[in-house]
Amino acid sequence: MEEINHTIDILSRVKIALEEQDSEKLKMLSDRTIHSASVYQHTDSILLAIVTYSLSKILERKEKLEIKNWQNFIRDISNLLDNSINAIRNGKYKLFTIFLEKIEQKMQDMSLEMKPMILEVIKKAYINKASKIYEHGISVAKTTKLLGISPWELTEYIAEKENLHLHLNKTIDIRNRAQMALEFLG
Amino acid sequence: MKVLILDAGPLINLSLNGLLEIYEKIQERGIKIVITNYVYQEVVDRPSHIPRFELGALKIKDLIEKKVVQFAGNLGIAEQEIESETQRMLSIINSSVRTENKSIEIVSPAEISCLAVSKILSKRGIQNIMAIDERTTRVLFEKPQNLAELMSNKLHRRIFINSKDIQIIGNFKFIRSSELVYVAYKKGFIKINDKRALEALLYATKFKGCSISWEEIDQLKKM
Asked: Shortest Cα distance from A68 to chain B (angstroms)?
């Protein structure tokens, strides 16, 4: 129940942030979804994080993407968000996932000319969310399996991210580990 | 016999850095290098369909075809034994990490199958070491309280790790790509005649996913 209420709250806030065209707020909401995605690992909460982050990136690049009928796009996504809120309120979880997938599809189809760029935005959203889940302590292999991406795609990306809790990665002394490697392999 | 068990990370790392020949040099020293079927899926099967990583995957496949890297089954371990040990360990680990009322699955069969091989080899009295770049498995076994703290900070809720259960699974020796290139440099496997070669190698492993801090790199440079 706690997770359902949390998801409804996030969806309602995503709708408002989208209508206000607030990309920073959308990013923050996507990060909030990641906490729950890391614990429960439900594909729909992961998809919600990805969709929300992709929307924030599309908003950021609105001018560059030169989308015709922008207002129609916002209205359609907003309607799909309403539908997904209703679905989850009524316990129709499969339908909820279908509406999230429709939002992803809607983003992909918003502009034929810009489709490659939009697909790239969505792909990067998958990798960005994977790096966030890894930061939460989930292994690379587990994370990539959850998001349906390859560890090859994640390795370079996680290296570029600043890790605020780097000191917690340290376990045994590097000199001892290096010595152990030299003795074993040398 | 000595056995180096590779998780996906150190294979991907050295492949992306064009340093796979280090494994050939290690194997020439009489050390067996092995992977599991789960790791093979991650380093060869899946990336073979991604154009950007296809070449890297093919280079690793070539190492396997040349028997520089072998499947753990070639050491006389039955696949069934690896699988059942993997599932047993997975079940313990994934129920040992908990928030208030729920366990959190933090690891997958790929890295745990490497631990399973390590445990089976140790039982047979065969010296082994595991190379793994990602942080979660290494920290879980070497300092579980650090992983609990990291997860608690990130998830904004208290995370408990049952360290006793983790200890029961076994003791493992872990190294990373950074230690592999360190050994390669010290043993003269790398033919780069520049005093900055070691730091360049260490930076390269960090930027391809090895969980090593800048401070640790500085310490290694001074050794």
From this structure: 32
The residues with which B97 forms a beta bridge, in sequence order, are B161
Task: List the domain boundaries for chain A.
Answer: 2-185
Task: Name which of B113, B21, B210 is nearest A158 in CA terms.
Answer: B210
Chain A CB contacts of B146 under 8 Å are 168-171
How far apart, in Å, are the Cα atoms of A64 and each of A59, A61, A125, B146, B172? 10, 5, 18, 44, 52
Structure tokens at B6: 């590779």
The token pair at B122 is 């140790």
Q: How far is B83 from chain A (nearest CA, A)?
A: 17
Q: Quote the tokens at residue A129.
A: 């969310």
Interface of B with A in 10-29 (CB under 8 A): 12-13, 16, 26, 29
DSSP labels, A64-123: HHT-TTHHHHHHHHHHHHHHHHHHHHTT-HHHHHHHHHHHHHHHHHS-STTHHHHHHHHH
Total residue count of chain B as it appears in this document: 223
- What are the tens digits of pLDDT across the range A15-66? 999 999 999 999 999 998 888 888 888 888 899 999 999 999 999 988 877 7
Tokens 């390669």 belong to B184
Q: What is the pLDDT of residue A163?
A: 61
Question: What sign for the dihedral angle of Cα A36, A42, A45, A46?
Answer: positive
Query: Which residues 6+ apart lie within 8 Å of A170 measured at CB?
Result: B146, B213, B216
Is A3 buried (19+), middle (13-18) or exposed (0-12) by CB count in 10 A? middle
Name the pTM for this structure: 0.91
A12-42: b or e for each residue (b if 16 or more CB lie within 10 Å)?
ebbbebbeeebbebbbebbebbbbbbbbbbb
The one-letter code for the residue type at B109 is P
**For residue B56, what is the nearest residue in chain A, using CA coordinates?**
A152
Residue A139 per-residue DSSP state: -
Say which amino acid occupies B212: I
A156 vs B135: CB contact, 8 Å cut-off? no
The pLDDT tens digits of the residues spanning B6-65 come to 999 999 999 999 999 999 999 999 999 999 999 999 999 989 889 999 999 999 999 999
